[in-house]
Design goal:
By secondary structure, the chain is α+β, with helices and mostly antiparallel strands. It is built from 13 helices and 7 strands. It is globular, with a radius of gyration of 25 Å.
């Protein structure tokens, strides 16, 4: 038990003084893992079929077919994972260095400009023949093969529609006739979109939960390991979950089917300095996972990022499919 834990005695929680005083203290010590091994594990999880094809060369079993473009991405990542950061560097490969730096950028909320500055400093510190990317943009290109990218989808200035699928080739909104692109001072149309919705594909993220050995078992926790004793510990203990199972028994029969929670809220990233701009992220939460994981930030999936004026908030969800 964490020493700073507060007992919620006003909510009925009781303290077991005998067990708490005699319980031995166990320090939470994380095992030391080679970062290069971790990165290789990530690649194997992201491309299980590609690694299987390579391992099965010379064997009688027929390898699993894989798309050529996907296999090319796998080979690029594998090359960066095996390439030394600079000649003689045994501690970091190119891919390991990028993953470590990008992890620190996200963890400590570093801006892209700040990241570019320090990346340039590190590159000058290393030997001149190092392979470290020169900026954040080039680092992202290396990680793109891991499925960490996003898709830009143009939207109508008035939030009438998305220029997507059957509307992808249109230059004006068929509802309000507003131009898809911005206008220059000479009234000439440029190819700069008036509004962009950033879509982070949800399907590959969910597939990744089943590709990894660490989370594949936990995705069945709600059915196989949950204690059903009428105590509310998880959404699966709620009546809404149980009613859904009764209504859709075929879906409920397979515990691997994904249950998601959806959350969204708007905020102004510029505070009171600009009241005409707001940002709406849309998050998905995998409720298959146990309660100590499903609401952790590591498993929060941002699927859509919308920026729009406050006057159009009531339309934000009706046109997102």
């Amino acid at each position: 038990m964490i020493e700073t834990y507060s007992i919620w005695n006003l909510h009925g929680e009781q303290v077991d003084h005998a067990s708490s005083s005699n319980a031995p203290r166990v320090d939470n010590v994380e095992p030391i893992v080679d970062p290069n091994d971790q990165v290789m594990g990530i690649i194997q999880d992201a491309f299980p079929f590609a690694s299987t094809n390579i391992n099965q060369e010379g064997e009688d079993d027929m390898p699993t077919p894989i798309d050529s473009a996907e296999f090319e991405q796998y080979e690029k990542l594998l090359k960066n994972a095996n390439q030394e950061l600079y000649p003689g560097c045994a501690s970091f490969s190119v891919l390991t260095a990028i993953v470590e730096l990008m992890h620190g950028k996200i963890k400590y909320r570093m801006s892209n400009l700040c990241f570019d500055y320090f990346l340039g400093v590190f590159k000058r510190m290393l030997p001149t023949d190092n392979c470290l990317p020169k900026d954040h943009k080039h680092a992202q290109k290396v990680l793109h093969g891991l499925g960490l990218g996003y898709e830009n989808i143009h939207a109508c200035k008035n939030n009438c529609m998305l220029f997507y699928k059957e509307h992808e080739t249109l230059d004006t909104c068929p509802i309000c006739n507003e131009s898809r692109f911005k206008m220059t001072s000479q009234n000439k149309t440029t190819k700069i979109p008036q509004k962009v919705m950033r879509y982070l594909p949800l399907k590959p993220t969910l597939q990744r939960l089943y590709m990894s050995t660490h989370t594949a078992t936990d995705m069945r926790w709600h059915k196989e390991k949950r204690v059903d004793d009428d105590v509310m510990r998880h959404p699966a203990d709620g009546e809404a979950w149980k009613e859904f199972d009764r209504t859709f028994p075929d879906f409920a029969a397979d515990p691997r089917n994904v249950r998601l929670g959806l959350a969204t809220d708007g905020f102004n990233p510029y505070g009171v300095l600009n009241q005409h701009h707001s940002t709406w992220p849309i998050f998905a939460f995998p409720y298959n996972l146990p309660p100590w994981k499903c609401m952790k930030k590591e498993y929060m999936m941002m699927t859509v990022l919308i920026t729009e004026d406050p006057g159009f908030m009531d339309k934000r969800c009706s046109h997102v499919r």
